[in-house]
Design goal:
Helices cover about 50% and strands about 15% of the residues. It has about 350 residues and is of the alpha/beta class.
């Protein structure tokens, strides 16, 4: 990219200015979601004026008009003018991904990005200077912790509604009769697993407070998956043919990852395996950009990092697994399958 941009950017830094303002574009979308703009437009049978939207959502007309115009500018909304008045409507993309009511809604992901990740990135300079200075620890019994946990659960639920099918079909997993999703959160990925492999039984194994919150806020009627409580670090894990670790390994330093993988290897039935789901870096670490950004996010929020395939392969083989296969999906997350 540097060679391609060198001359044009010397003349005028268009791309740099676009990057500088990227956080503002994000906040335009975040704010519209939090205010309920996309939900209102989806429910409406016709385009709405800024005055109408402002009245319904309890905002100033001037502020709402500027927000709506910015959304038109980034092609999230459409606008038409009649008798001098602008009327706004959602694009198909906004209706599908940004409104709460859609089956593929990313609303919960956006709320987590806006209210949790966005403020945390103010700490990036200190996080780079002092690895491990990733913010204060929250009391797990506190209201703040529970609120943050619910937001995170919403994020993961949105992630697997969007990417789950590509992950569970990256390999043919039909030979695994019993599947346990360790740290499976709301069960969104497990439900995609059941859809793809209806003859397999799928269990979500997570902390008691996570399972309780899932049953309260994310439960589904006639659910085909089973929830079991426990702690995969400090306690036993149920026997299975296949264990799924989706966005778990990237949370932790290598030593802790090896401990968990060894426990899985020792519990896993012969011929069974483990499926890792992560945003993998290229071997030279020069991309993908999303994985690089995710790795920075681990710096400000957790103890881990994103890794290239060779590092995951090394950890799997060191703990006894063989026949490691890697599948890049071309989407946000990739899959690695290893056999015991």
């Amino acid at each position: 990219m540097a060679e391609h941009l060198s001359q044009s950017e010397l003349d005028y830094p268009f791309k740099l200015l676009e990057y500088f303002n990227g956080f503002r574009v994000s906040k335009v979308i975040f704010s519209a979601c939090e205010l309920g703009v996309f939900d209102l437009l989806l429910k409406s049978q016709e385009p709405l004026s800024a005055q109408h939207v402002a009245r319904e959502l309890g905002t100033s007309v001037d502020g709402m008009e500027r927000l709506l115009d910015a959304l038109v500018g980034i092609e999230i909304l459409e606008v038409e003018t009649t008798d001098g008045t602008a009327f706004y409507s959602s694009t198909d993309v906004a209706n599908l991904y940004l409104a709460k009511g859609s089956a593929k809604s990313l609303h919960d992901m956006i709320i987590y990005q806006s209210q949790t990740i966005y403020p945390l990135w103010n700490n990036m300079v200190d996080a780079v200077r002092f690895v491990g200075s990733n913010g204060k620890q929250l009391n797990r019994e506190s209201e703040v912790f529970m609120e943050e946990m619910l937001k995170f659960m919403g994020l993961m639920n949105s992630s697997w509604v969007l990417d789950g099918h590509d992950i569970v079909t990256a390999f043919n997993l039909s030979c695994f009769q019993t599947i346990v999703d360790l740290g499976g959160c709301t069960g969104a990925l497990a439900r995609e697993m059941v859809k793809a492999y209806p003859s397999s039984s799928v269990t979500v194994f997570d902390l008691p407070q996570v399972v309780e919150s899932t049953q309260k806020h994310f439960s589904q009627e006639n659910d085909a998956i089973v929830f079991q409580t426990g702690d995969f670090f400090s306690g036993d894990i149920p026997a299975a043919d296949l264990y799924v670790l989706a966005r778990i390994i990237h949370d932790w330093p290598e030593e802790k990852c090896l401990t968990l993988l060894k426990k899985i290897y020792n519990t896993c039935r012969p011929g069974g395996g483990v499926l890792l789901v992560e945003a993998m870096l290229f071997e030279n670490r020069r991309g993908p950009v999303m994985a690089q950004i995710f790795s920075l996010n681990m710096l400000v929020q957790a103890e881990g990092r994103e890794r290239p395939p060779s590092e995951y392969t090394h950890m799997l083989k060191k703990t006894g697994f063989q026949n490691v296969q890697v599948c890049r999906t071309g989407k946000s997350y990739d899959a690695i399958l290893a056999i015991r």
